[in-house]
Write a structure and sequence with these properties.
The complex is a heterodimer of chains A (178) and B (453). Chain A is an alpha+beta fold. Chain A has five helices and six strands; from the N terminus they run βαβααββαβαβ. In chain A, 46% of the residues lie in helices and 17% in strands. Chain B is mostly helical. The chains are: A alpha+beta (178), B mainly alpha (453).
């Protein structure tokens, strides 16, 4: 099935933000916006659902805490108890203050690393992946908005986009989805 | 302009009166002879009898700290009269300590707010100028708190009360049987004269900054250029240097010296962290109260969100310092250091661990979610718990050295808190009526109004 898209290029993030607002107000469907840097507030303007990565991060932190407790309990209490500084390691809770730095570090370690990995997976990013952005200038100083042109009059849509401040407007017709 | 609601005024005065009655009851209820102590202990019956034994066990360490005659601890039971006298001193210290803790707690809120305010000026922060008048309102309590603190310190120096053990002159007299080598060694710093001189220097410095910064922001309101703003920037930067030294020394003098044998090198930071949490919590609370009355229409949820982030962040910072202090001492296990935590864990177990839960676990779980930081009543409720937790923190820092095992949160403590709460509310909200609630000519005021997270 042939899909028609319009790629509109902007050169300023403030103009882009305004354009996104206008395009959405006119009930056109924005498929994606490619930017060279994170534009603050763009997700809200595009109407994207709020991220749930914070919840993931919290859960990963709990996993890290559990791993740290289990690990230290096995290493220091069960497997090889030692008398360090006159504090014999026979009880986890009595030696807990010594393990707090490890519990803290592993909580942070798990939360941070697994969160980044989750982010890569959700963004479909992996090593040697071919870049998806349709125009290399979006990695430099240009912003690209991809709009679904399916059932709209292309002439009228182009005119509308031009009025929102787009510098270049191109019609893309492709057979596959990417 | 804000006008003080008459209800609020009445409410504050009622708190002060009830609190003053509670404190008075505390002072009148304190025993004056060992015979009265004996009666009080007998009246408590068997329940107290069992705890009495454990009290006698820990007595040796407590006595060691109090520097009472050697040989006294060898058999505490033979020395019933000396024990009663010890309890008598603790019970006599209790209303004074309660008064001191509560007055220091509210002093700490005003001083922390002043430091936070100076940081905003020195950093030329763009988000906070809409809150400047709220902060200035809170720091208006500082002169009052300073006068009260200096009176309490003078009363201690003139031996009206004995909450500062090291002020006892016999301890540094080599002829006296009570001679304490460690305290005598510290008498170059810990002597009443120099102690009061230092207190005056700290308080003068804090209050001078408070006076001029307030005056100059008011001048800036009607200024043609940014002259007063720039002056305030320089003053704030200078004050912060003064503050970070004097705040640390102030913590040694006014809190750490209750345990004159013990010392901790990060104590100043620890008190500072608690101070900042309380101050930011109170800024958020006063802001929300004023907003709910229809004032501060230019303050939006993002400002509250930022304050709540600071509450969250400084709670964690406080815990970090609390744990750093605790873990090193626990691990090293050096007798003269570890007594501090042993008395707290044995005699103050519930407040000691309870306040860690209130000051760390509670705010971490409550304020972690981004959305909750914008829910005003949620911030207020979390703030109440945080403030209560930090009151207990100050309580834990002072009471074990002054009242030992004879502690209780009863009439004197609650009365003193109610009294100072009433005074604080009255002074702060009266000060808020004195100037427009928006520092309108601050060069960052537009940015601050449009602040959006």
């Amino acid at each position: 099935m042939a899909a028609k898209h319009i790629h509109a290029i902007y050169s300023d993030d403030d103009i882009l933000m305004q354009a996104v607002k206008q395009v959405r107000a006119a009930h056109y469907h924005i498929e994606e916006v490619y930017t060279p840097f994170p534009v603050h507030g763009l997700d809200k303007v595009m109407g994207l659902a709020p991220t749930r990565i914070a919840i993931c991060s919290f859960l990963y932190g709990l996993v890290g805490l559990a791993v740290a407790i289990t690990m230290m309990n096995f290493i220091m209490i069960e497997d090889w108890p030692q008398d360090i500084g006159g504090k014999p390691s026979f009880s986890y809770i009595e030696n807990m203050p010594a393990f707090v730095p490890i519990m803290f570090e592993l909580t942070v370690f798990f939360a941070a690393h697994l969160m980044v990995i989750t982010f890569y997976m959700r963004s479909k990013l992996w090593p040697f992946k071919k870049a998806e952005n349709p125009d290399v200038r979006t990695t430099d100083d240009h912003f690209l908005m991809a709009i679904d042109a399916g059932h709209h009059d292309v002439e009228q849509l182009s005119k509308f986009l031009y009025d929102t401040g787009a510098l270049e407007i191109s019609l893309i017709e492709n057979d596959d989805d990417h | 302009m804000y006008t003080l609601p008459s209800k609020l005024k009445l409410f504050a005065i009622i708190f002060m009166v009830v609190g003053a009655l509670g404190m008075l009851a505390g002072f009148l209820g304190a025993p004056s002879t060992t015979a009265e102590v004996k009666e009080m202990m007998a009246a408590h019956g068997d329940g107290h009898g069992t705890s009495h034994d454990t009290a006698a066990d820990t007595h040796n360490t407590a006595m060691g700290e109090h520097g009472v005659t050697e040989g006294h601890g060898e058999n505490a039971h033979n020395d019933e009269e000396a024990h009663l006298e010890h309890v008598l001193h603790q019970l006599q210290n209790r209303p004074w300590s309660a008064l001191y803790v509560a007055s220091f707690f509210f002093f700490m809120i005003a001083l922390g707010t002043l430091a936070f305010y100076a940081i905003q000026h020195a950093a030329q922060a763009g988000w906070s100028p809409v809150l400047f008048r709220v902060m200035e309102g809170i720091t208006a309590y500082l002169p009052w708190a300073s006068v009260i603190i200096i009176i309490l310190l003078l009363l201690s120096v003139f031996h009206v009360n004995h909450i500062f053990h090291w002020m006892d002159g016999d301890l540094i007299n080599p002829e006296s049987p009570k001679y304490d080598k460690l305290i005598a060694g510290k008498s170059g710093w810990l002597n009443p004269m120099w102690f009061i001189v230092r207190a005056v220097i700290y308080l003068l410095g804090f209050n001078l900054y408070r006076y001029f910064s307030r005056k100059w922001t008011l001048n800036q309101d009607n200024a043609e250029d940014n002259r007063w703003f720039k002056k305030n920037f320089k003053l704030a930067a200078g004050f912060l240097v003064f503050f970070i030294y004097t705040e640390s020394m102030m913590s040694w003098d006014w809190i750490m010296s209750f345990d004159p044998h013990w010392f901790s090198t990060l104590f100043g930071w620890y008190v500072f962290a608690g101070m900042m949490v309380c101050a930011i919590t109170v800024i958020a609370m006063v802001t929300i109260v004023l907003k709910s009355q229809g004032y501060l229409e230019f303050v939006n949820d993002s400002h509250i969100h930022d304050l709540a982030k600071f509450m969250f962040g400084f709670s964690i910072f406080w815990t970090y310092l609390w744990f750093s202090q605790f873990m090193l001492i626990w691990y090293a296990n050096i007798p003269e250091e570890v007594t501090y935590f042993i008395t707290r864990i044995e005699d103050y177990n519930l407040p000691f661990f309870g306040m860690v839960a209130m000051n760390f676990i509670f705010p971490v779980l409550m304020l972690m979610n981004s959305d909750y930081k914008r829910v005003n009543w949620f911030v207020i409720m979390s703030g109440v718990v945080i403030l209560a937790g930090h009151y207990i923190d100050v309580f834990n820092m002072v009471m074990p050295a002054t009242v030992g095992t004879s502690w209780f949160i009863g009439l004197p403590e609650i009365g003193a808190m109610l009294f100072f709460f009433g005074l604080f509310v009255l002074v702060v909200f009266t000060a808020l009526t004195k100037a427009p609630l928006l520092a309108k000519r601050n060069p960052f005021i537009k940015e601050s109004k449009h602040f959006h997270y």
